[in-house]
Every structure is written in structure tokens, then in C-alpha cells.
């Protein structure tokens, strides 16, 4: 009897597709952390938190891809390419794009890219900091 994990649940005797998740965030090295409302963040802390939550999601049965974007020079094209070459069940947009004022316009542009290129059934979620990404994804898929 085979047991396959999906989203932390087990299903006996059937193969269940793993939910595909795309994590979109700013390239940590370009962020001006002095403008972040989350105190004490650094590029290293952000990368470590994203990697830890990605691993947590993988352990729970999700298929995870991280996509770091720049501050707008190529971000729209990079996200568009990711969405036309693959499909995802859930797309998480990082808090750095949403809550750090200099990046809010880019956040709006990226949301519209998702709206334009992802299937209508794709869930969108948001974290509040790099360490609660898994919780954000689990709310929707």
C-alpha cells in the first residue's frame, strides 16, 4: 500500500499531485532595510528565513520555487516568464514588495502580471515577514 503526502495530509493508494507554489520577493541584496517596517532585517536574515520556510513547505508536500526579482528593471519580464513557462496553485508575494514604500508601485505591477498570466484558479497570498511564508501559503492551498 503506497502512501503519498500532499499538503501535510496522507492519501492511501492514490497519487496526489503536489501543490506548486511560487514565492516572489525582492532580491534581498538590493533592499534598503532602513525603510522596512520590520526591524533588524538584513539580506542574510531574509535569505535564511525564505530558505527555512521553503524547506518547511517542501516537507509538508508542496513543490516550491523561489523567484527573486529586481527593483523594476527586469522584474515584470522575469515574473511573466515564470508564469508562461509553468503553472502554480499559489503565488506568494513577499511583504518587502508590499509594505516597503519605495517598492509599492512594483508590487502593483507584479499583481497585474499575475492577474494577466496565471490561471484564474491560482491563489494569491501574502506574508507579513520572511518567516511566516509557510503560514501564508497554508491558508490557501
How would you characterize this protein structure?
The chain is α/β, with parallel strands linked by helices and 141 residues long. It has one domain: Rossmann fold, CATH 3.40.50. It contains five helices and six strands, in the order βββαβαβααβα. The strands form two sheets. A four-stranded parallel beta sheet has the order 4-3-5-6, with helices on both faces. A hairpin with a 2-residue loop joins β1 and β2.
Key structural traits:
141 residues; alpha/beta; four-stranded parallel sheet; two-stranded antiparallel ribbon; 5 helices; 6 strands; 38% helix; disordered N terminus
Write the SSE topology.
Layout: E1 3-6, E2 9-12, E3 20-26, H1 43-59, E4 63-69, H2 75-85, E5 90-93, H3 95-99, H4 104-117, E6 123-126, H5 133-138
Helix pairs in contact: 2-4
Report the CATH C-level class. Answer: Alpha Beta
Terminal CA distance: 26 Å
Structural class of the secondary elements?
alpha/beta
What is the helix fraction of residues, given as a range?
A: 25-40%
Biggest sheet architecture: 4 strands, parallel
Gyration radius, rounded: 16 Å
Number of domains: 1
Q: Tally the helices.
A: 5
Question: So, CATH architecture?
Answer: 3-Layer(aba) Sandwich
